[in-house]
Amino acid sequence: MKIGYFPGCSLHATAREFDESLRAVAAVLDIDLEEVRDWACCGASSAHATSHVLSVALPTRTLALAEKQKLDRVLAPCAACYNRLATARYALNHDKKTAAQVQSIVGDGFNNSVGVVSIAQLLSEATAEIRRQAKVPLSGWKVACYYGCLLVRPPEVCGFDDAEVPSSLESIVSATGATPVKWDMSLECCGGGFSLSRTASVVRLGRLILQSAKNAGAQVIVVACPMCHSNLDFRQKAMLERGGFGDAMPILFLSQLVGLSIGLDPIRLGLHRHFVSTQPLLDRIGAAKPQPEHREQA
Amino acid sequence: MSRVGVFICHCGENIGRTVDCSRVAQALGELPGVVHSVDYKYMCSDPGQALIKQAIQEKGLDGVVVGACSPHMHEKTFRKAAAGAGLNPFLCEMANLREHCSWIHEDREKATRKAVDLGRFIVEKIKFNRPLSTIFIPVERRALVIGGGIAGIQAALDIADGGREVILIEKEPSIGGHMSQLSETFPTLDCSQCILTPRMVEVAQHPHIKLLAYSEVESVDGYIGNFQVKIRRKARYVDETKCNGCGECQKECPNKKIPGEFDQGLGMRTAIYVPFPQAVPNIPVIDRANCALFRGRAKGVKKVVCSKCAEVCGRKAIDFDQQDTFVTENVGAIVVATGYQLYSIGKEQDSDSLRGYGEYGYGAIPDVIDGLQFERLASASGPTGGKILRPSDGKEPKTVVFLQCIGSRDPAKGIEYCSKICCMYVAKHTMLFHHKVHDGKAVVFYMDIRAGGKGYDEFVRRAIEESHALYLRGRVSRMYRNGDTIRVHGIDTLSGEPVVIDADMVVLATAMRAQPGIAALAQKLSVSYDQHGFLNEAHPKLRPVETNTAGVFVAGACQAPRDIPDSVAMASATASKVLGLFSKELLEREPLIACVDRLTCAGCFHCERVCPYGAVERKSLMDGKGRLIKIVAEVNQGVCQGCGTCQATCPSKSVELEGFRDEQIYAAVNAL
User: Fold this and answer.
1) Is residue A128 part of a domain?
2) Residues A78 and A164 reside in one and the same domain
3) Is residue A126 part of a domain?
4) Is B223 helix (H, G, I), strand (E, B) or coil?
5) Over the stretch B497-545, which tens digit does the pLDDT of each residue have?
6) Closest to B179 measured CA to CA, from B163, B193, B168
7) Are A85 and A168 in the same domain?
């Protein structure tokens, strides 16, 4: 199956392990990722906080390029990219005034025919294949699925999964053989883009999330958003210092967990790139320790 | 050649101010076939009517056109006057010169010309009018009431007290409806059971009421005055004629752990059960899905797995082989009082648009309950004996959060209407909670407080001022378990502050919805319903308990969310309508209905498909030797409402609507 691929800026930088693991997993699951040529920033945070038209025009340009490339659907792994692309598509269909303005920017000939899918949606469609390919038994792994705020919201834009009680990540995790836990904070805010400007808030929010996952018996949190990952992984040290919930909790991208279950090399999955060590997890399945010399600073 | 008389009314100044009435009378008088044309200040007055009568007699008129107000206002008056002078009343028609002309125009010249046009329209039409005679149809003076809740009970009792026979059917094993589940009722806090159960007993003992509990409407045929209703009597597996309601069978039944419907799943019942001790009729029913014997049978087990109830029954009333039976009743009027269901959040929904509120954890967190469940907890006959104890651990909750408008007024969840009763019953709940748990704290999240009604707003004020309920204007975003409590995240929009409350129990005031299956029933009755399944009344203000199908009336919450006083008032209104209908042996109705020309009807039955009232029937035409010539459409005079849809549809122009036949309309239109 061929699908358009819009990595966005994060997957080339802070979340390159998301990109690496996703490409590795896609190859095994027979998903052909074709990158949208000449894609540009999705406009998350900076554009949609300043100019509505720009925030629709930027992703529309990418969608128009994908349409020219004859792609039916585009995968946007980053939850923020996904949200911007899906929101733009929705705005073009429902807001005539904005659509006209954007049309004058991106030019004629765009039919808004390209669907936008999240990583949760793509892998939900592949659960049967994941189950078939799963080689490494992850039974006994207790996984907290963390959706964050954007992955399934707003419902009219995403049109996928339940916006309040989602279950798509759980079904994917179940397909790997691991056990998703029931917990309360799967949709809470991680602090998003305030990691630098209001670090204390991010640490406070993240701590509640980690605590809730821990209380539910989780050993690992699975995320599908580079921002969530960065906040929960990079800021976890500060959260731990405030005490109250014991040991560190590894934070994996969904694609990394799927990659482990289908027996991919932890290095190819970028598991050595995290701040919180993933070694306790790897020890459980007897995988080789990622070599420190591979470590590059992102 | 016609001899038409024209009578133009000034309606005081109402018409005369903008229309030159004498000029209109003069212009119309010059039309061919018009032999008399006058104007007068008040045509509806006695001298005005006398002018008409006199002209009919003196000039031998065969048509009368009155140019005056709307026919809705005075058509009956003038037709009566015409009939008084010996003219067939249907040869008298009105041109509306007031609502359609003088009231809406200012230019006297143009309005006068338009008035002439309107008059000419009717003059040309009336030349083709035929004398018609009133139709009489016999009335079966018995009524059917569907639904045995408070509305159905009230309607049945009122009709029966009026001396007419009533058949009351109820789909559940007992009558009583939702009201029997309630603890106390607003705004007086009188005990629901105490005021309801005497009425239930009255129903059972009334000589004019035939109670068919555990029964449903299978099909409805016929029309006003002459309905034939087929009723399915569902198998109870208990012989009603033998059972004396001793209750021994329930004591013996080994399956005692079935969540009871009456207690909203908070209490347990047996597989053979009476829904509640005050049930009417007090006869048990076997729940096949949970009975060991029937489950065994379903699996193909030959031997009788359990027959403890039959063994203990001294009157040998248990009959495991009972089947559903059917009875047909002939009735003249039907009252629909099927009530409501509560929007059940967090479970499977019948429509995708109703999915939502997963964030409240209903169904996942045992101490998140709905309003009816709280009623059962507060009720003396409930599973806790009237003590407020939370379902999870049986402890007395000290902090209870009530959420209003769950589902209601939320188009995103598919229900945009207000459920009307929730503001009041939440206030009542906070009072009941305060009366029973003195050191308890009730917190209410509301959108608006709608307490319109006698003593209603005072009641809410009492909840706030005397029972110290904390009312916060805002919504709750989510709730989750936090140790022993439920953490409630909400917002107080008046202070603009987010609110976090650790509650021991949460009560959701979920929306009132139409009953499941109401659409199927409405279709059987040819009654229209809105997008939510609530039945439509004939007119929201002036005909609130009638439907667009003559002889079918609506009472209570099947028409819209209603509280008990409203439901009872509606029920009594339907009873007065039914008794009015039954006051005559023959039903009189206007002959302005469709009729079929059998000679040209090709039997395509387009008319049958488009008729919204089911008035078209099939008639076989035989020759003298009893051989079939053809099958043609025939219009049932009792059912036809004269809408004309069939006339517009008929490809061979074989259907005509009396009073609006094609030649009449063509003549009128050609006159313009």
Assistant:
1) no
2) no
3) no
4) strand
5) 999 999 999 999 999 999 999 999 999 999 999 999 999 999 888 899 9
6) B193
7) no
Phi and psi at residue B164, to the nearest 5°: -105, 150
pLDDT band at A298 (very low <50, low <70, confident <90, very high): very low
State the fold for domain B590-670. Alpha-Beta Plaits (3.30.70)
CB–CB of A184 and B481 under 8 A? Answer: yes
Q: What is the ipTM of this complex?
A: 0.79
Element (H, E) at B357: none
Q: How many domains does chain A have?
A: 2
- Cβ of residue A108 closer than 8 Å to a chain B Cβ: no
Q: Is A159 on the interface with B (CB under 8 A)?
A: no
Greatest C-alpha distance within chain B: 96
For residues A48 and A179, membership in a common domain is answered with: no
DSSP conformation letters of B18-66: TS-HHHHHHHHHTSTTEEEEEEES-TTSHHHHHHHHHHHHHHT-SEEEE
User: pLDDT (tens digit, 9 = 90+) per residue, B36-94?
Assistant: 999 999 999 999 999 999 999 999 999 999 999 999 889 999 999 999 999 999 999 99
Is the CB of residue A283 less than 8 Å away from at least one CB of chain B? no
pLDDT tens-digit readout, B94-151: 999 999 999 999 999 999 999 999 999 999 999 999 999 988 988 999 999 999 999 9
A162 interfacial to chain B (CB closer than 8 Å):
yes
State the nearest Cα–Cα gap between B474 and chain A, in angstroms. 19
Intrachain domains B4-126 and B590-670 with the same fold: no
Dmax (CA) of chain A = 58
Q: Measured between CB atoms, which of B357, B358, B480 is closest to A184?
A: B480
Residues of B with CB under 8 A from a CB of A: 355-359, 478, 480-481
Instruction: Classify domain B4-126 at the CATH class level.
Output: alpha beta
Q: Number of A:B CB contacts under 8 A? A: 13
Domain-wise residue ranges, chain B:
4-126, 341-513, 590-670
- Minimal C-alpha gap between B360 and chain A (Å): 9
Shortest distance, CA B482 to any CA of chain A (angstroms): 9
- Residue A297 has a pLDDT of 46
Q: How far apart are CA A173 and CA A168, in angstroms?
A: 9
**Mean pLDDT, chain B, whole residue set:** 94
CB pair distance less than 8 Å for A164 and B358: yes
Class of domain B341-513: alpha beta
Q: Do B357 and A164 touch (CB under 8 A)?
A: yes
Domain region containing A26? 2-119
List chain B residues with CB under 8 Å of A187: 478
DSSP per residue, B229-252: EEEEE---SB-TTT-----HHHHH
The answer to whether position A294 is within a domain reads no
Q: What residues are paired with A34 via a beta bridge?
A: A4
Higher pLDDT, B358 or A234: A234
Contact B359 A164 (CB under 8 A): yes
Distance from CA of A43 to the nearest CA of B (A): 28
Q: How far apart are CA B130 and CA B659, in angstroms?
A: 8
A147 in the same domain as A95: no
Looking at CA atoms only, how far is residue A164 from chain B in angstroms? Answer: 5
Chain A contact probe: residue of B347, B478, B489 with most A CBs at under 10 A: B478
For the entire predicted model, the pTM comes to 0.79
Helices (H) and strands (E) counted in chain A, each on its own, are 14, 8
What residue of B is the nearest CA neighbor of A184?
Answer: B480
